[in-house]
Q: What sequence folds into this?
């Protein structure tokens, strides 16, 4: 079956093949890498089905994600765990693998709420406690080889750069890749959420962490830095609040703060490469019409210049706040 032709009838048939029935409300959710649908089952209530993009993860890697979620839930971390049918959490229909979760009800996480940030810090520390002993062995490690060097190659080959901007963009990108690679020197690595931003959080009697599709091993700060925004002073307040909750459970290595800007550069470059590599998927031109335009690439040149300056600036330091 063609992954791009997951029609409502196919989705309904796939779910029915494992004894889960769509009784009402089948609705596509805002996901591009995978295909994710919410629906209601009269017996089990609201559910979410995720159909995994072929060749992104192996069965072993997906099942490892599911095992990590179970270990986190057992430790009291607020995560949803996939449903089991006949002791299985991963199913296949016409060559496409999928899983089903109970839908998590809640409201949008408020990134400007210090109360919510502190509670999130505690949850992330609990997650990292589990991540120290639950080693994601088949998942990749967060690395510059993947997020910078491989991504650079993707952009060089596949990005539709206007001729007059191509040389300037690639030159800046090469400098950014080299500088971020030089600065990214992680110490202890553990199993992480990997993509912890406000879009993957909900608040219901505390923070809930959603969508572990990018879980992998890396430094603990990877799950913290995307919650920081604004000017330097504002980020220090946010960081202090996150760590106030975090360090009630687990000690944070302040040396990892020097990894924030290299990690930001890695995410920036990897995101551009992700869009370029997925451009043949009809969902991407439809939902990202600004990508691959001259204006977009001109803007990215400015963004790369700004990030190079951030890489050379002193990193955030707890001593400058406390």
A:
């Amino acid at each position: 079956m063609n992954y791009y032709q997951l029609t409502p009838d196919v989705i309904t048939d796939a779910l029915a093949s494992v004894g889960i029935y769509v009784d009402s409300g089948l609705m596509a959710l805002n996901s591009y890498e995978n295909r994710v649908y919410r629906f209601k089952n009269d017996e089990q209530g609201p559910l979410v089905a995720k159909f995994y993009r072929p060749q992104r993860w192996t069965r072993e890697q997906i099942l490892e994600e599911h095992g990590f979620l179970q270990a986190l839930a057992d430790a009291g971390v607020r995560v949803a765990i996939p449903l089991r049918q006949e002791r299985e959490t991963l199913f296949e229909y016409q060559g496409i693998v999928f899983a089903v979760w109970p839908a998590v009800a809640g409201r949008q996480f408020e990134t400007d709420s210090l109360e919510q940030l502190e509670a999130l810090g505690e949850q992330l520390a609990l997650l990292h406690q589990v991540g120290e002993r639950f080693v994601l062995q088949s998942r990749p490690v967060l690395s510059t080889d993947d997020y910078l060097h491989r991504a650079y190659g993707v952009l060089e080959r596949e990005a539709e750069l206007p001729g007059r901007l191509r040389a300037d963009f690639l030159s800046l990108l090469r400098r950014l890749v080299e500088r971020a690679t030089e600065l990214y020197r992680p110490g202890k690595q553990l199993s992480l959420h990997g993509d912890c931003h406000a879009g993957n959080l909900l608040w219901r009697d505390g923070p809930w962490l959603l969508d572990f599709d990018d879980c992998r091993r890396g430094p603990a700060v990877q799950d913290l830095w995307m919650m920081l925004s604004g000017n330097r002073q504002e980020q220090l307040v946010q960081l202090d609040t996150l760590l106030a909750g975090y360090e009630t459970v687990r000690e944070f290595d302040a040396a990892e703060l020097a990894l924030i800007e290299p990690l930001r550069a890695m995410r920036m470059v990897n995101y551009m490469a992700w869009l370029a590599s997925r451009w043949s998927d009809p969902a991407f031109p439809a939902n990202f019409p600004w990508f691959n335009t001259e204006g977009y690439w001109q803007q990215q040149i400015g963004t790369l210049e700004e990030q190079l300056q951030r890489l050379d600036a002193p990193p955030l330091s707890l001593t400058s706040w406390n």
Q: What stands out?
A: The first strand starts at residue 24 and ends at 28.
